Amino acid sequence: MALKRINKELRDMERDPPTMCSAGPIGEDLFHWQGTIMGPAKTPYAGGVFFVNIHIPTGYPLQPPKVSFSTRIYHPNINSNGSIGLDILRDQWNPALTIPKGKYFHLLLLSICSFLDDPNPDDPLVPKIAHIYKTDRARYEATAREWTRKYASIEMKSLDFAKGLLLLLPGDTSQ
């Protein structure tokens, strides 16, 4: 059941990729994907390229995938291990989500992009960063921008946006 659903998700991602992000299997392992998220414009993450690891359990879709950032990021809802405080990955997971089959990973990536644009400091994984976000937004944005520059900048000479898929690997600056 999991492989059939994963293949459908992969076909859908190739056919209709979400804007400014992509995901796909690493090599031949359909249960281990890498996602690439471009930092949204007009945010402290703009210009950054963020990588996420997606581990799909053999019990998928009855069990949620485990998703974590592999790129360091300064965010109230993403901790130092890369764990993401996104409800559809935690308490709101439901295999019968009203999402058409093949669209879950599309929604997941868009939700993560939205999180970068609009953090939720009222349900933080990192309370200290949430406090700074609420009380000193300029400091929060400056630190997030610095971390983006330091950890999520990739020298890009050329990118292949064929079919909307961003094909980069972490640490690959030889493009």
From TrEMBL:
Residues 1-153 form the UBC core domain. PROSITE patterns: UBC_2. The keyword Transferase applies. It comes from the Eukaryota. Pfam families: UQ_con. Keywords: ATP-binding, Nucleotide-binding, Transferase, Ubl conjugation pathway. InterPro entries: UBC (IPR000608), UBQ-conjugating_enzyme/RWD (IPR016135). One of its GO terms (molecular function) is ATP binding. PANTHER family: UBIQUITIN-CONJUGATING ENZYME E2. This is Ubiquitin-conjugating enzyme.
